[in-house]
């Protein structure tokens, strides 16, 4: 993979990010992505948030469930404070430019780059990779298209997406180089805060994931207060009390995970949490964490449920967002095609 290229200051700052409607939202999605999406609206930069349904179908999705989950992610966007008047919210498949640009980028990116992606390796581990969809292999190229279609300069994501964002930079740089242009920006990843990688509650070495077969491994945004408290109480930990310093968490992934979650929910730092709970047993810390999680998440869950009562309104918001997204994307896609040498005689 090529060396990082400096971001081009000539592009107007613009934020884009996406979440797959491939299941319910987890605490990991909330802290690593959603919560930060809402905060970015206050920074005076244009913000575009997408429900990436084309990505979701890289693995089998039941059509009715896909529709439901697309609305549910949209409801989670709204419930966490993303305001359709200040941000563009839409689902990917309604803006055809994503699939069109992805095709062009498929012809720029190299197959070997795709095989090297750890997400592809993880998702095919223990299975016959030859039998996975072609879309799953090309997934990062579609993600690059999502980002580059809007000349995005910054992408807030969790730690697990870092490699995909590096690939997006490589694809943009190769396109610019191959065609002798300075057309696509070299996008910056925004991986910030103490919860960029929330781990499974059952195994501190595995990412908390919406597709983990064990429901006890994650907190879902749709879990009620009792379920959240029970999952935290049962979370795997070692028998020792919390240490006096952050250093003491070094070889204790489960304890570190719970401290990081506490800090991110509270809006403080792991250092501050350790200072407060130095020497405390998990029997003391876990109930406090559960109370904090319920206090922070239940208003979001309630708002999500309210939005889900009115699917027609959700669909209206997605449609309006798609029209606004398309207005930005269309001229960029048209220019891309012109650079590539495609004739458009319908204008
Ligand atoms: P899966 O778990 O099925 O692989 P996912 O939740 O990782 O799916 P997305 O829903 O598309 O995939 O992820 C949306 C955003 O949430 C991304 O920015 C991703 O980095 C972030 N995210 C996902 N899981 C975590 C986690 N455990 N900790 C922090 N951020 C996360
Ligand atoms: N691959 C991402 C989801 C995603 C995305 C994007 C994130 C698809 N397109 C564009 C940021 C920008 C994931 O989290 N699994």
Structure, described:
The chain has 13 helices and 5 strands. With 347 residues, the protein is mostly helical. It has 2 domains: 14-196 and 310-340, Rossmann fold (3-Layer(aba) Sandwich); 215-306, Tyrosyl-Transfer RNA Synthetase. A 3-stranded parallel β-sheet has the order 1-2-3. A two-stranded parallel sheet has the order 4-5. Helix 4 (97-106) runs parallel beside helix 13. The longest helix has 30 residues, at 311-340. The chain is globular. The chain starts with 13 loop residues before the first strand and ends in a 7-residue tail after the last helix. The site of adenosine-5'-triphosphate (ATP) has 20 residues, from helix 1.
CATH topology of the largest domain: Rossmann fold
Q: Return the CATH class of the largest domain.
A: Alpha Beta
Indicate the percent of residues in helices.
40-55%
Computed CA radius of gyration, to the nearest angstrom: 21 Å
Low-confidence stretches: 1-6
Fourth-level CATH superfamily of the largest domain: HUPs
The total strand number stands at 5
* Strand content range: 5-15%
Principal-axis shape equals globular
Helix and strand pattern: EHEHHEHHHHEHEHHHHH
Content-based structural category: mainly alpha
Small molecules (ligands, ions, cofactors) in the structure: adenosine-5'-triphosphate, L-tryptophanamide
For the largest beta sheet, what order do the strands appear in spatially?
1-2-3
The largest β sheet comes out as: 3 strands, parallel
Can you count the helices?
13
Number of discrete domains:
2
CATH-defined architecture of the largest domain: 3-Layer(aba) Sandwich
Could you tell me the mean pLDDT?
Answer: 95
Distance between the termini: 39 Å
